[in-house]
Task: structure prediction
Amino acid sequence: MIIDELVTLLKSFKYEVDRQGNFSDSSNYPDTFITYWNPATPDHSHYDNDNYGIEWNVDIYIYSTDIDTAYSLTKQIRSLLKENGWLVPSAGFDISSDSPDHVGRGLEVKYIEYNEEEIDNG
Result:
C-alpha cells in the first residue's frame, strides 16, 4: 500500500512517525516527530468511462522544538519523496502545534498509482 511505503520513507529519518492525531498528550511529545494524514484519494483521470489511476493526497506534518530542525527536515523529506516518485508542489507551509514548545511545518504531497492492467496493456 502506498501509505505504508510513505511511512517507511519517513521513518528513514529516525524520528517517530504516526498518523496525525495519534499523539494524545502534548506534554509527552518527542522533541521532533512526523505525522501524516490522507485527506483524499480520488481517481486520477478517466478514459473510456474508467479511471486509470488513483491520486494519493497526503499531508505530512513535521513538529520540532527547534525551528531549524523543522525547516531542515522539511527540505530533506521533500527531496527524498521527489527522488521516490512523489509530487511535492511546494517547499512547505507553517502549521499550528498543540504544544507551545513545538513549531510545525507541513508538506502537501501526491503520488499517482496507475492501475496495473493499464500499465500491462499500455
Notes: The radius of gyration is 16 Å. Confidence is low (pLDDT under 50) at residues 118-122.
